[in-house]
Every structure is written in structure tokens, then in C-alpha cells.
Fold this sequence. Notes:
Keywords: Signal. By secondary structure, the protein is mainly beta. Helix content is 15%, strand content 38%.
Amino acid sequence: MTTRRALRTLASIALGGLGLVAGLLVAPPAGAAGPPVTAPDAAAVYQGNVVAVLPVQNDHDPDNELLTVCRLGTEHYRGIDVGSFGDEVDISVRPSTSPGVYTFTYYTCDFQTLVPGTISLTVERLPKIKVRPDGRGQIKVKNPFDFKIRFLYGSFDEAAPDAKALINPGATVTLPVERTSIDWTAYNRKGTVFCGTGTVKGIRLRAQARPAAGVPLSDRLARAWRTAG
């Protein structure tokens, strides 16, 4: 073999070796895991309420790394406010929000990758609680929900309601009142689901009617009463 041919052979071997090394440097390691995988989420909420969604609970990371919500999408809908904290997405729906299905984008991430996911929110029409005068010093209330409601009534100008009542699902009750106009608000039994608010007027009173001094409430219901007016 001539000296020139030998040099060409050595150079070819050397370059081939460098290519092999370079290939090893850029190739992903065997068994490397991919980005997080998201799954669609769905939630439902009545008008005038807030719902908390934990979308990363059904998302998966191949590396088993901790996932969290790192960003929200750009969707904006009238009457709906969205925020996130850690792995929770909080969606607040105003009473005037139109019933329907709304889609939101969130981004879940591990320590390296940001992946989009979706939340489908169904806003349900709030059933109407019927409240009307019923004889002297009385109002009649019908609960349209399939759960008990806590009905608070009196005047929103007062720090506490005159009275409260727990009304069974689908039931109609008659309640005594001592005002010609009654403000009211209603929640579920725990005070976590807003069920409605309003004012009923034109109530005829018994002789010498006198408003009650007010009833004690839990902190949650007391806040609900203060904000209702």
C-alpha cells in the first residue's frame, strides 16, 4: 500500500469514528420518556356559582414527575372569570351568564415541557325559587332543587336575617314574616352552592307586627347574607 493510499484509509476510518461519536451524542438515550399526556376534563356549575377543577389529576407524566397547571389559555367569555393556583383551576360564573358549554385551555407542565389540555364547562340554568305573599304576615316558598336549601329572609339593610328555614327538595312551605317587603337569599345546606336571591313585596301584615331581632348564622352564611344585598 502506498503512503498516500494508507493516509486516505486512516482518514476515512477516523472520520467514520467521529461520525459514530457524534451520533451517540445527539441520539436520545434508550427508553427516554416523552412529554406529559393530558386527558379532557369536564365540570358543571349553576349560574352564580364557582367550581374548582383539578385537571392534572387525570393527566400523566411518563417520567412520573410532578405535574401542575403552569398557564391558562386565552379564552374569554362574558360573565365567566378563570384563575389558577397550583394544580387547581377556579371558574366563577355570574348569575347573568348564559347557560351552555364553554371550553377552556390549560397547560400542564413537568420540569421541561408545556402541554395543552382542555376543560369543558357546562353552565346550568339556576332553577327559580318561587316566593310570594300568602295571607297576612306570611310568604310561601317553593324549593325547585333536588336537595335541601337554606332560606334566609328579612331585610338586607340589617346585619342578620329575621329568620331562616331549611326546606326539603321539591317542598312548598309557608313562613311567617313581620315586614311588608322581604329580602331573601338561599344556598344549599352547607352554604356552598348559591341557589337564588330576591325581594318579595306587597305583604299584608297582622296588627302590631314587629320585625324579629335577627338569627345567628355560621360564618359562611353570614358572609352570604352580607354580600346578597
